[in-house]
Amino acid sequence: MSLAGHLLELRKRLYIAAAALVVASVGGWFVSDLVLDILNKPIELIVENQGRNAALNYTAITSSFDLKIQIAFTVGVIVSSPVWLYQIWAFLVPGLTRKELRYGLGFFLTAVPLFLAGCAAGWFVYPHIVELLTSFAPSESTSFINAKDYFDFILKLVLAVGVAFILPVFLVLLNFVGVLSARSIIKGWRIAILAIVLFTAIATPAADVFSMFLLAIPMVLLYLLAAGVAWLHDRRAQKRALDFDDVEAIA
């Protein structure tokens, strides 16, 4: 495919992904009130478990509307993930061989559940993170939490954990198609850790270092897991190559 053909294909895939995102975001608007009620539960737990006052503050007239838009968009990204992940895979299909196509299909079938599982994991742990971070305040104090900062922290955390679950799949896929060796993955661990720290610093809007490293540690472990899978694959491929050379030598 020519460069112009690739650009046309990219535009087509982007249009499809954008359309799916818009449709899913419209649906997310109708469930945004339910999501708001669920996200507000940790604030109620602060009052019950820590015995002190806590409340969300909407500091601007448009804050509540902006939050509903943000929640609708986040729900749209999660719900439409099978579509835009498939578009990523479909864009790579023209440049792959038959064997590599199987790897790409494996990526799609693995990435979608992992992304949803990552979002579910972030959704499961965020109440504990909120309760832990607010527990450092004195018992007699009152927490007036900015609603935008609070929801921004939670929604970005959910998406960031979802993305973190996908990144190792990309590394393994690049290794399986022969683009990236296990040695290169392991050798670049310093750059990878630096990139992970920068990513988590952007993904977690909270100013404390604890939140950043709380997300960075599992991402580093997933990176090491991907390096281990790539190492096993390279070792198996090297063994098959040696066996093939032995057979040719005998012949």
- Number of separate structural domains: 1
Quote the beta fraction: under 5%
Look at the helices and sheets and give the structural class: mainly alpha
Query: So how many helices?
Result: 10
Helix fraction, binned, reads over 70%
Overall residue-averaged pLDDT value? 78
Straight-line distance between termini: 40 Å
Shape: globular
Our Rg estimate from Cα atoms comes to 22 Å
Name the descriptors:
single chain; 251 residues; mainly alpha; two-stranded parallel sheet; 82% helix; 3% strand; transmembrane helix; proton motive force dependent protein transmembrane transporter activity; protein transport; transport; TatC
Would you kindly provide a written description of the structure presented here, covering whatever features stand out?
With 251 residues, the protein is mainly alpha-helical. It has one domain. Helices cover 82% and strands 3% of the residues. The protein has ten helices and two strands. It has helices at 3-30, 32-39, 41-50, 63-79, 81-92, 98-134, 147-176, 182-187, 189-203, 209-250, and strands spanning 54-57, 143-146. The protein has a two-stranded parallel sheet with strand order 1-2. The longest helix has 42 residues, at 209-250. It is globular and about 70 Å long. The model has no long low-confidence stretch (mean pLDDT 78).
Q: Would you summarize the structure shown here?
A:
This protein is mainly alpha-helical and 251 residues long. It has helices at 3-30, 32-39, 41-50, 63-79, 81-92, 98-134, 147-176, 182-187, 189-203, 209-250; strands spanning 54-57, 143-146. It starts with a helix and ends with a helix.
